[in-house]
Structure formats: structure tokens, C-alpha cells
Amino acid sequence: MVSHFVNHEKTFSEILAFIHQCSGDQNITLEEVVAKSEMEHGFRNIALANLMKSFDNFDNDVIEVLQTYFKHCSKHCSIVMNAQQLSRSMLYLANDGTDPISNKQLINSTQAKRINSLMLTCGHYDASGDFDFRVGLPGKSGVGGGIVAVVPGKMAIAVYSPAINESGNSLVGTKALELFTTKTGLSIF
């Protein structure tokens, strides 16, 4: 897998271009301070990589894998958006991969289904099951306090509140989405 990420800058540029296309906003960028912090505080990821290597679950050298992870992923974790940009950039996932505003097919419906499934099962770190139970929507949180949730066939909704719990999810954002689905009946369950 590491060999697929040889050109980190090109990969990041392609992902950022896709986000620009999805959001309709060319001003979305990354926050260098956050990217640097991700690299400086990735102790758990380093420990997990070494643990996985001890069970022979890495084909590549751990150092090489970690360097790739930090060069590649720390930038993706540092993309800065407001709630409007975030919800707009995920709207295609509520519409089987098609942006309903531009009517452009960004990904196919199978890919949209898979992404929504991944967000539902692991989009909120260790608290994904709790989020599913409370909110009942595919979603993804960020340690900056943002959460985006997808209501299939209807909308994407984003919330932001910086206070996070021990799992790295916005406390108020989760509660707001729980109240939203309770009041509207838009939970998928």
C-alpha cells in the first residue's frame, strides 16, 4: 500500500481539488499549524503501527509506513472548513454520488454507499457505536469539533462546537445532531 503514496504532494493536491469540486469553494485550504501538530503528537499511531508489526501485519518497514502516514494523512486531517463548506462538500454522499447542485456525478452509487457505510461504522473513532445509537446517521467527526452527517436521499448537515470528548468528538455537536434526528425523525433507524 505504501507504494501507492509515493508522490505525497500530488496526492494531497488531487484530494484538495476534489474537495474544491464537491464544495464549490476554491478557498478551502489546510492549516499548517494543525498539520505540524498531527505529526508531533502521533504517539498512539506510532504505538499501534509497532504493535501491528509485532503481529506481522505490515509488509513494509514500520518507519516507512509511518513516514507515509504522517506526510500524507496529517495534511488531510488539517483541511479547514466552516460548517457550510463541510455540509456542501458532503452533499453528493446524500445523493448516490451525484452533486445535486451541479448535477455532476462525482463518484458512483456503490462508492457512495461504501463511504456512507464506513462513516456509519467508524466515523467517530472509538465512539462510533454511541454516535449511531444517539444520532442514527452516517457521519464523520474531526478533532477540531466539526461533525458532518449524511441523511441519505435528503441532505448533509454539519455542526461545529470545539469542546470534544475523550474519543475526539464534539460534545455539543453530537447532542445537536441527536436532537435534530429525534425531532425530525430522520435517523436511518
From TrEMBL:
Catalysed reactions, as listed in the record: L-glutamine + H2O = L-glutamate + NH4(+)
A Pfam family that the UniProt record links to this protein: Glutaminase
Keyword ATP-binding: no
Gene Ontology biological process terms from the UniProt entry: glutamate biosynthetic process; L-glutamine catabolic process
E.C. number(s) listed in UniProt: 3.5.1.2
One term of GO molecular function: glutaminase activity
SUPFAM superfamilies membership: beta-lactamase/transpeptidase-like
Keyword terms of this UniProt record: Hydrolase
InterPro entries named in the record: Beta-lactam/transpept-like, Glutaminase
Annotated PANTHER family: GLUTAMINASE
Quaternary structure and interacting proteins, as annotated: Homotetramer.
Annotated family: Belongs to the glutaminase family.
Protein name (database record): glutaminase
Organism: Colwellia psychrerythraea
